[in-house]
């Protein structure tokens, strides 16, 4: 199956994707998503390893981009990274950086190289571990001030890592007036339509009344109940392949201790979560 014609697709909102990797087997699914999104959007893909031991890392440890693309039938056997870049319209960068603060190093790299999407594997942690030390993935995304796609260790996501096939049929997006969902909706809807034009969006608002969002959003369902629990209940019932969350970052001490709404949903979400900072937060 020749899939090289995907290189002719119209670019989406992302031009430069950053995937931090720790070279572990559990990180393979996040790499597959980062690579698949880079190909679909013709974006540059930066693979970054931050070593807190103070040593530079050999490039041989990084995931093999060409091997994956050949396996997915985007490239012919024997292809090189140069033919991959010229044929698919993406650019592939492998970088290593010694740093004692991994999250800050990731955020600094994203800012320096203009990365407008992070793809991150998040590892489960007990509430006490989160209280003492925030999730590295969550903290990295906050410091980068860029949209971030989070995958949990136990989640297969919407990209088949063996074939590159997409499984993106249903998308759930909770919205709230105080966060300003229009920016997130614009990015998410464009990306999803590029990946799977027939994917169905469901927008929900949790509260007593439905705010006025104007005519820029499609129909929004009103749901009543506790915020986090209701979002997770809807996700469990509707079984989305992706949850999109507009985020305004940490606003108070409670957010610092427990995580903001997006982070708390992420920790129990049944699928990947795409967190998109509002324009106000990004600026």
CATH topological fold name of the largest domain: Rossmann fold
* SS field, number of helical segments: 11
Oligomer: single chain
User: Average pLDDT value?
Assistant: 83
The radius of gyration over CA amounts to 19 Å
Counting helices, strands and paired strands, the structural category is alpha/beta
Task: Tell me which CATH architecture of the largest domain applies here.
Answer: 3-Layer(aba) Sandwich
Total beta-strand segments: 10
Strand order of the largest sheet: 3-2-1-4-5-10-9-6-7-8
N- to C-terminal separation?
43 Å
Uncertain runs are 7-11, 126-133, 250-259
| Biggest sheet layout | 10 strands, mixed
Give the proportion of residues in helices.
25-40%
Q: Can you say what the CATH homologous superfamily of the largest domain is?
A: HUPs
Q: What proportion strand?
A: 15-25%
CATH class of the largest domain: Alpha Beta
Keywords:
Rossmann fold, alpha/beta, 2 domains
Task: Explain briefly what this protein structure is.
With 283 residues, the chain is an alpha/beta fold.
Characterization of this structure:
It contains eleven helices and ten strands. With 283 residues, the protein is of the alpha/beta class. The protein has a ten-stranded mixed beta sheet with strand order 3-2-1-4-5-10-9-6-7-8, with helices on both faces. Mean pLDDT is 83; it is low at 7-11, 126-133 and 250-259. The chain folds into two domains: 4-152, HUPs (Rossmann fold); 170-282, 3-Layer(aba) Sandwich (Rossmann fold).
